[in-house]
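Moderator note: this is an archived Q&A kept for reference. The question asked for a predicted structure of one protein chain; the sequence and the answer are reproduced below.
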Amino acid sequence: MGTKEYKIGPLQYFAYGTGNFASQLSWTMVSTYLTVFYTDVFGLGAGAVAVLFLVARIWDGINDPMMGEIMEHTHTRWGRFRPYVVIGAPLLVVFTVLTFTVPGFSSTGKLIYAYVTYIGLGMVYTMTNVPYQGLPGVMTDKGPKIGRLMTAQMMGMVIGMIALNLFTLPLVKFFGQGNEKAGYQITASVFAIVALPLFWFCAKQCKEVITVKKEHQVSVKESVKCIVKNKNLMMVLLYTVLNMSGMMGRIAVAVYFYMYVVRDFRFITIFMMMQMIVGAIVMPFSPRIMEKLGKKATIVLAQILQAGGLLIMAFGPHQNIPFLFVCHIIYGLGYIAGPCGSTMIVEAVDDVDLKTGVRTDGTAFALNGLGSKIGTAVGSAVGIAVIGAFGYVANAQQTAHAIQGINIGVNIVPAIFFLLGIIPTLFYSLKDKDVEEIRAKLRKRNDERDAVSEEA
């Protein structure tokens, strides 16, 4: 393993942020609109869509760790991660367009087509996004710079999500002119094509300087052992699952609350995006907050803010619009901890690298991506299950009992997930001063290895 520092300035931070903006042009389109596209435009039944999503998540459990191992054992002049961003981006364009295309097949043919394109899309997204997520840990070994890169990544995500939510349906209507099949296909094509040069720009500017040589690598079996024994990494992954269960789980069911409980359709769009807008405002301050409070304390504060905002909303006057704005602002302030989890993954990987000589950054970020997908699926499933258990009936006047269930599923359940997310964070044992010492020792070790290699 070797480390050669290069300048990371505004251009690199901006370029890295554009990578996650580009990711959202594909994946937010999928996570937000694919279900309704499959049922209302493509022509699949809700049950068939649910099974498809389940099968895809099961495959993710195999595919994502495989991608991590492949990355770790890749050796090119451009690094271990960047080549996959370059190669995966055009494939992501193709599969995004194919996924939002309605073929002229029979019902069975359409279902097979949906399986091939959706699972294929998930695989090329993993191929592109997992290496992208891991780039900060190989661009520098300076903690503050890693934190700023992770902040840029989260900013790109939030801005991308806001853009997708603002423009997708208007563009579907504009391009389709009454033909939703054409509208979705052209809109997905435009977003995917815009994403391609952004991915390539990111890959060009975000150079890898922390490398692992073949002679310093171990077998997949040994790598997996190091991952499993890495307690701090396991705690971060558990936090990711719980945090994403709360955040993405709420996004998946929040519209029920605004439609049937708030019942003011003027504000549905703004409330759906409110926490993201607040997040985009506060996230540039994340590195400074993290440096001042520490990452653990920042996460605890954020989880309390998010849970607190939702619980206040749950037990307050649901049709008081100014009150709801305040609750959403409190909830959105929790985005301040966005970069913490990814930064802590790099710290945990560095710690084990120093202790064992094994660097598992590719697999670690692959598992974190898998944790995000699991959290999204769990949060969505629990939320909709609670709503259904209280007697929700689609497109009907809801009973008081059903409204209570919607409030619980949309606000109280995610708040519980956020509060649970504090627990694994408290078991994360690396302190900022420890991380500085670990990285100084790693730098010294790597310099010594490089010197030996040059002499040989």
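Archived answer notes: The chain has two domains: 9-209, 224-445.
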